[in-house]
Every structure is written in C-alpha cells, then in structure tokens.
Amino acid sequence: MATTTVHLMRHGEVHNPDGVLYGRIPGYRLSDRGQQMARRVADHLTDTGRDVAAVVASPLQRAQETAAPVAAAFGLELATDDRLIEAGNLLEGSTIGTNPAQLAHPRYWKLLWNPLRPSWGEAYADQVVRMRAAVDDARRAHAGREVVLVSHQLPVWLTRLAFEGRRLAHDPRRRQCALASLTSLTFTDDHFAGLHYAEPAGDLLVGAEPQAGA
C-alpha cells in the first residue's frame, strides 16, 4: 500500500497597509515577515526529512512567493494550478475585511441574503470541488511521496471540512488555518487516512497584520 501526503499550505503575510479585501486582485506581494514565514516552512519541511516530490501554487503572487522557497529547498521547479486560487468574492477591492461595519450600508444588502452559500462570492461547494480535484491529481501523480499545494485560507479550510465530513457553512472566526500553516492530508492508496495541522511559523504570527481576503 502506498502512503501519500498532500500538504495544503496557506501563504504568508501579505503587504496590505490599506486593509483591502484583495481576493484575486493581482499584485499583492508578501511582506518581509511573510517572506520569512515562507522560508521557515521550507526549513521545517527539509529539517523533518519530508519526501516532497512536487510544489504547486495558486497563480496569485502571494502564493507563488510563498511556494518559491519550498520548491528551491527541494530542488524542484514550481508548478502552478489555477484550481488552488483564492475564493471568488464580489466584495474584493473594499475594506470590509478591516471595517465590517460597512456591511450595514444598503448597497451591500443584495449580497448578504444567504451566508450559508455564501451569496457574496464563490459557493463553498464549488471551492471544494476544485480543491479536491487538485488534491486527487497531486496524490495520484506522486503516489507514495509528498506534495505541497500552496493556496489560501478559505479554500484550504473548506477542503479540510469536506475531508472531515463536516458542514461547509461555518464561523470564519473559528477557522484553524493560520498564515503559512500546513494542513496535511494523508492517504493510503486512494483512501483518506487522516489529517494533521501544524504552524511551523507560529512564533511569527505574533504581531502579524490581519489578512483581508487571504
């Protein structure tokens, strides 16, 4: 039997001094601390002797910059998978993430009718479909080894909920998916065997900037 691990990594801290809900807007890079977070995870994976065969990232700049040190640490070429991209969000470009009181304005009401879907962006179920497809392709391509997929908080968290058989509707404040964290899915052949969560850059989270649309 082949044991395969797919590590879902969230990107590091983003330089976002204006608190914009950046979503899929291009050009949002890692902060200096975010770069440090990425290097810390790369060191963690090499120091613990992980057998990483591939590193694949969302096409967004912050994910690419997070993945680069990991790929370099294992002598791998960084690959890109559009299925790992941030959730679509009709509120992107606003500062609602840092000032949620703005949601009281009538112009936003038409977007808030169904928080369980959610009505303001890409459906939770649709995110799970694309993320699980990326996970399945990665584990099949590298059976018996390990793969790092660098994505974003909400898609990673929803993927975890789906594998654990939990409801996708949730309280965003209770997500266990910190910056530069690893949500590691283990498979025995084609069967999901378990999950492990780790924060290799946990000490760098103290003082980190709140991430709007991460």
TrEMBL record:
Cross-referenced SMART domains: PGAM
InterPro entries membership: His_Pase_superF_clade-1, His_PPase_superfam, PGM_Phosphatase
GO molecular function per UniProt: phosphatase activity
Gene3D superfamilies xrefs: Phosphoglycerate mutase-like
GO cellular component: cytoplasm
Record-linked CDD domains: HP_PGM_like
SUPFAM superfamilies the UniProt entry points to: Phosphoglycerate mutase-like
Domain of life of the native organism: Bacteria
Protein name as annotated: Histidine phosphatase family protein
Protein's organism: Isoptericola sediminis
